[in-house]
Amino acid sequence: xxxxxxxxxxENAADIIISGxxxxxxxxxxxxxLAVGNGTEVKTAKVVGSPSGLRKETEGISGHIGIGHTRWAxxxxxxxxxxxxxxxxxxxxxxxxxxxxxxxAELKAELEEQGFEFKSDTDTExxxxxxxxxxNGDLKGTVSAALSRFKGSYALGIMxxxxxxxxxxxxxxxxxxxxxxxxxxxxxSDVSAIAGKGDRIFRVNDGEIGILKKDGLKIFDxxxxxxxxxxxxxxxxxxxxxKGGYKHYMLKEITEQPAAVRRxxxxxxxxxxxIKFKGLHLTKQEIQDLDQIIFVACGSAYHVGTVxxxxxxxxCKKHARAVIASEFRYMHPYLDEKTLVVIISQSGETADTxxxxxxxxxKGAKIIGIVxxxxxxxxxxxxxxxxxxxxxxxxxxxxxxxxxxxxxVYALAIRLAEISGTLSRRETAxxxxxxxxxxxxxxxxxxxxxxxxxxxxxxxxxxxxxxxxRGFDYCAAMEASLKLKEISYIPCEAYAAxxxxxxxxxxxxxxxxxxxxxxxxxxxQKTESNVNEVRARNGKTxxxxxxxxxxxxxxxxxxxxxxxxxxxxxxxxxxxALKRGCPIDKPRNLAKSxxxx
Length: 597
Ligand code: F6R
Prior knowledge:
- By secondary structure, the protein is of the alpha/beta class.
- The chain is built from 18 helices and 24 strands.
- A 7-stranded antiparallel beta sheet has the order 3-2-4-1-10-9-11, with helices on one face. A 7-stranded antiparallel beta sheet has the order 5-6-7-8-12-13-14.
- A hairpin with a 4-residue loop joins strand 13 and strand 14.
- Helix 7 runs antiparallel to helix 14, helix 9 (299-316) packs parallel to helix 13 (400-420) and helix 15 crosses helix 18 (561-579).
- The longest helix is centred in the C-terminal third of the chain and has 21 residues, at 400-420.
- It is globular, with a radius of gyration of 25 Å.
- The protein starts with a strand and ends in an 18-residue tail after the last helix.
- Fructose -6-phosphate binds next to helix 9 and helix 16.
């Protein structure tokens, strides 16, 4: 979602900020802006659209300190007025903000009563005005006092006219990083914007206030006491973000899946085929005592959770289910110390998933986090973390992170079953051997990607697309449907094949396409009967199976089929969106990291 970039140093701040904001574009945005100070005054520029539009707007603006922002509209339309930075009434404070101030309406009314006038529809303007209202000459103290008034989430970059050589930063439930090099400092909401720039990178935590000056960074708690921080390390493959000759990041990331899955598996499967999760600190007894396993996540990560739940139910013989994080957090879930909650998140910052994890923690459940971004909030807060090693994922629609997450949930289910005694040593070895073969089988599917183009022609000419499947096929159908709808904008949905007759079949006509996933040997014929019902009503069909479908995938054990059947369907989504001229890497209205509810 929104992105923050700040800089103090000898270079032209506007140039550095704009290129940092461009690096953050993948997160999703609709407008951008920046403020640059030259010691005596602060000038701002804002545009609707891409941050590159700021280059023209900042032609006459120079200075060595500044803050910038990409906005994904929450309060107020994407207009120049609503774009950040926002400035307080007298121009004393300039603010960029990620997150939502939930009590902004109440605070706005209070400030209006004091005579403050508001120009925008945003919640952020309240922050700038509140800072001015509370200002007593002590910058750090004023920021601390203002923060105590805000409810919600924020990552903030603040400039104050009385302190022209510094940027103040603070955060609550929204990520923020500072980078320090000789003679310059950086501020960013995503470590990727400063990874190659700052020599030493620091994470700002909730309840901290950072003061950035050209010669370094000082962090304080809200009472003004200095805090010593350790720098964080960034893995080389997390930095790689060029398109590598591909037309889109999404296609590049689809082709990177064998490597992403191999790298992930090698984190916890050793040479002799034993599974050992380094980040898992649950005892054998705690695992054996578990009586329910709940996978909690959003979007594609939730679809991975459905696979995890089916796999745990089958292999561990324990109650297992997947719950959407935004539902979980308000459903008063019954959890106790015999519950394992598995949190799945690529970004490690998804607001609902993070909140769900905190609720589960409070209720005493055991928690495991499956995360792709090492320095993310979930990776930092969760006591038991299993990292996916998909590398940096830039396309908004996830592909390689989804595949890497699947690899983890399979291994987790196998390991939990082994410890619980529901899989013998021999069965465990068979599952592990087949899991290790998954990347090679994905490679086979990727050896001729162009052949899926003809299926995209069928999808493109369809007004409605339904993905059906049973068991693990149903889990993959949900992901395939989301992938196609989010990047091609064709209305799609996924149905458990047996549910088709309970309503959805009324949508089947010659303009509809039904994609049937029939890769579970024991359920294949049942889903094929559903395909016949669709054909009898003139609906178009594409079948995916491991023997005789329109699309044929390599054979594997049933629990691993989602990893294989999803590959051609990711390509179906990609080529359909390509044919329709859609902005594949950044679909409209979507953001890579969903940091608000
Ligand atoms: C879809 C997609 C999203 C994410 C969801 C959760 O292609 O990428 O549905 O899976 O927003 O994001 P994370 O995994 O970062 O929590």
